[in-house]
């Protein structure tokens, strides 16, 4: 669902569920000259998804991104960004539409 969300917005998915360094990358995407490492969180509510992005989690994502870049040197000159996509259940009659997708850009600075 997160990959589909990104593709609809012009991103090209380069990789999924990649282990490396001290962590894992859920999605690696490209949009123009921007390389985006995306963490996907499925939680009951927005707050718990944001709390899951603690300092240790961010450090592991950065470590995994460095490892990914070392295996894909053709992307090292690109600007990189770390995003979060949160999938949270809709309430009431909207549950027919599936989870709500929220894309937060530049979650790690």
Account of the protein in words:
With 109 residues, the protein is α+β, with helices and mostly antiparallel strands. It has one domain (2-104): Trna Endonuclease, Chain: A, domain 1, CATH 3.40.1350.10. The protein is 28% helix and 39% strand. It is built from 3 helices and 5 strands. The chain has helices at 2-8, 46-51, 55-71; strands at 12-20, 23-31, 34-42, 79-88, 100-104. It has a 5-stranded mixed sheet with strand order 1-2-3-4-5. It is globular. It starts with a helix and ends in a 5-residue tail after the last strand.
Q: Which SSEs are present, and which pair or pack?
A:
Elements: H1 2-8, E1 12-20, E2 23-31, E3 34-42, H2 46-51, H3 55-71, E4 79-88, E5 100-104
Parallel strand pairs: 3-4
Antiparallel strand pairs: 1-2, 2-3, 4-5
Q: Helix share of residues?
A: 25-40%
CATH architecture: 3-Layer(aba) Sandwich
Strand element count: 5
Through-space gap between termini: 25 Å
- Biggest sheet architecture: 5 strands, mixed
**Gross morphology:** globular
**Average pLDDT number:** 92
Going across the biggest sheet, name each strand in turn: 1-2-3-4-5
Number of helices: 3
The CATH topology label is Trna Endonuclease, Chain: A, domain 1
* Structural class estimated from helices and strands: alpha+beta
- Rg value: 14 Å
Would you list the SSEs in sequence order as H and E? HEEEHHEE
